[in-house]
Give the backbone structure.
Amino acid sequence: MSELKALIFDVDGTLADNEQAGHRVAFNRAFAESGLDWHWDEALYDRLLAVFGGKERLRYYIDDFLDPSEVPPDIDTFIREVHARKTRWYVELMKSGAMPLRPGVERLIREARSAGLKLAIASTTTLENATALLTATLGPESVKWFDVYACGDVVPRKKPAPDVYFHALEELGLDASECLVIEDTSSGLASARGAGLPVLITANSTTRDEDFEGALLVVDQLGEPGQPMETLAGDSADAGWADVNLLRWLHSRA
Ligand code: XBP
C-alpha cells in the first residue's frame, strides 16, 4: 500500500447525525411551504433512506408510496422546485446551529490537517448543504480546509455507484491506494469500494446493523479521549479513538 495522503469524508450521517433532525425536517418544511399535506415521520424517513439523494428520494416516495391520483403533473419541475425549497430550509437549520458534529469528527479533521493530509468531501448532498454544515460547526474558514468537494449532481449516478469517489480521486490527483474514506452506510461503502478505496465505517444508530463486509474497520463513532469508540468489526488495535496514527496503520494493512 502507498503512503496515506488524503482522507475523503462522506457528509450525512458521517460528520453529523443530520438525516432525521436535519434533512427530514427540511423536507417537511418544504412540503408545507409548497402547500402539500405530506409529512415524513421518522419511521417513514428511515424507509426512504434506502434511496440516496434528496431529489431521487422524492421521486421514490412519489412512485412507490403515493396513490397515482396524487402524483403531481409535471413531475420533474415539481421535484426540482420542492427540492430547492428543501435546500433553503436545510441551510437555515444549519445556520441556527441546531446540528453538532459527531464525536471525534472535529478532532480528526484538525489532526489530519496538522499531519499534512489532504481533505476531501464525497457526498450525495448538495455543495450548499455540505458547506453550510461545515460553516455552522467549524466556522467559515473550515470550508477552505477541504481541497475537493465532490457533491450532489456533479456525477449523474449517485451512491452506491462509485462515480462520486472516482470524481473525488480525479480532483485530488491521487490514486485510490493513497486515500482512506470515512463513511457510515453500506451504500457509501459499496460506492467507495467500487472506486478501489479503503474504508473506515463510523456507523450510527440507523446503519449499525447493515452489512459492512469489505470495510477495514467498523466503529460506532470516531471516539474522543474520555468517550471511547466501540469496535463493531475489524481490528482497531485497542484504540479508543480514531486518530491519524490509527488511520495510517489501518491504511498500511489495506
Ligand atoms: C446522504 C443522502 C442525502 C441527503 C439529502 O448522502 O442521501 O441525499 O439525505 O441530501 P451522503 P440532498 O451520505 O452521500 O452524504 O437533498 O441535498 O440530496
